[in-house]
Design the sequence.
């Protein structure tokens, strides 16, 4: 039986729907070129491994495993990133319900949380992500800087909100002014979706 490969997920909105915060051109190239490239490379690596096992041949397993981790990380983070956003005006401007209550307890309010997240995003070195995660053991919220697509991720922590701060995510719109892109991002966060993910994780915590 042929094994299923990775596919580019359908965007939950049209390319122009995140304007003026992310332009149609910026979103199009980010999604169809960069994200697609991670999907294509991950599939190529998986097929190399399958073929080597089927034929009993040797490949550089260490190199493939490292490259596969990078490209799968890129695919999964981008898939979450698209779902984290919604057209401006369609969603809430900040979280509500259990997620809001948890942010209030841990950060002393949404403004403090937003400040910390923005600082983590703006100070990430080179190609990186800012991420809000939930520990599946304690339910605690934690902010991470993820280097590349796969460095500094704790296994027991599930990501519920991510922001891509690689230059390819914003350069057409903001050139090298990453802080302006981060500020714009807060206008299109889909807090309903982030809150839904948070609640789903909470259900599984004893």
Sequence:
């Amino acid at each position: 039986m042929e094994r299923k490969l990775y596919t580019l997920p359908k965007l939950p909105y049209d390319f122009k729907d995140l304007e003026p915060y992310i332009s149609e051109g910026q979103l199009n190239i980010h999604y169809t070129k960069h994200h697609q490239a991670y999907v294509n490379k991950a599939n190529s690596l998986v097929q190399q491994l399958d073929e080597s096992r089927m034929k009993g041949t040797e490949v550089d397993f260490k190199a493939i495993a490292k490259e596969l981790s990078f490209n799968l990380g890129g695919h999964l983070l981008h898939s979450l990133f698209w779902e984290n956003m919604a057209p401006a005006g369609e969603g809430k401007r900040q979280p509500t319900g259990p997620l809001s209550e948890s942010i209030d307890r841990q950060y002393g309010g949404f403004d403090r949380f937003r400040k910390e997240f923005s600082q983590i995003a703006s100070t990430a070195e080179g190609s990186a992500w800012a991420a809000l995660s939930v520990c599946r053991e304690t339910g605690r919220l934690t902010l991470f800087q993820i280097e590349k697509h796969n460095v500094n991720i704790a296994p027991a922590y599930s990501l519920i909100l991510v922001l891509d701060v690689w230059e390819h995510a914003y350069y057409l719109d903001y050139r090298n002014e990453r802080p302006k892109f981060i500020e714009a991002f807060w206008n299109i966060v889909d807090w309903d979706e982030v809150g839904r993910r948070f609640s789903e994780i909470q259900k599984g915590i004893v």
Observations:
- The mean pLDDT is 94.
